[in-house]
Amino acid sequence: MPKSLEELREILARGQRLSQQGSYERKLPKREARPDLFEAQTGLREYTVDNPDDEAAWRLRSLAEECVTNFKAAITCLERAMALSGQRSKKDLKTLARLQEYSKKAPQRPPMGDPTWNHPQLGAFDYDVVGWVQTLQAPAFDAFEYDTGRQRGQYRLIFEADEESELPSADAVALAAKVLANQVQLVPKVTAALWDDINGRGPDSGMWWHNDLAAVCEHLPALARPEDLLGIMGLSDIMVHKLVFRDERPLVELSFEAPFETEHGVGILTDGESVLGTGYSGDVIPFEPEHGARS
What we know:
Number of domains: 2
Helix content: 25-40%
Number of helices: 8
Strand content: 15-25%
Shape: globular
Number of strands: 8
Order of helices and strands: HHHHHEEEEHHHEEEE
Structural class: alpha+beta
Low-confidence stretches: 106-113
């Protein structure tokens, strides 16, 4: 049963308390806060779909998106709330400017001498604001041909970490190695899962593109088969999440840029063998439990 707005407000508030974030120091929330924050975010997304004219819901959703550092979505939600109110108050404009500033701050590579972590098989990683980062080659993923603006064939492998003293777990390292070892098999599984989502088959991701091939192709050449997605997707990051909503284990998000979703990008969730979810880059969650993985 869908939760009420007040119930979602309480869940978000609990997550905020556990996260111990300040409005002017947003960073990845602490691990113990994430289940509540993700539940609030998901619930508010569903609530605003069902109640598109509820200004308070859009404001609360904007805050939830901000708490999980999804600043672009937070901006969109706040702008929707402002439009519904018919006003552009100084407080809203100040919040909007802060969110816009956050959204422009790309993670910066640390200067020489900053913390590094060396793994005997995976090599050296630098600590960045998102976690432990290494640029590597993953030749099978070169099959995704869309130009991301980065050097072709170079991808970031990222282990999520809240601070430099937090090293990746053995399970996270094993999962990253598994994804890299299975990259050839994963490519067709990614395109097949997203193609089915776009054509309304299999699990419903809840994304705007589900069962809407026409909208995806609106400004693109016609797509006729899963392999056609290779030309309109480009991998940028291989993100090893410590946990995601509905799953308390490490999972990998393959983060893609795509011309049909330029604002958020496309995220594909995997355990190294199957596709577990499709959605926005940085916000993808597993399919509903009753649907299961796409093998």
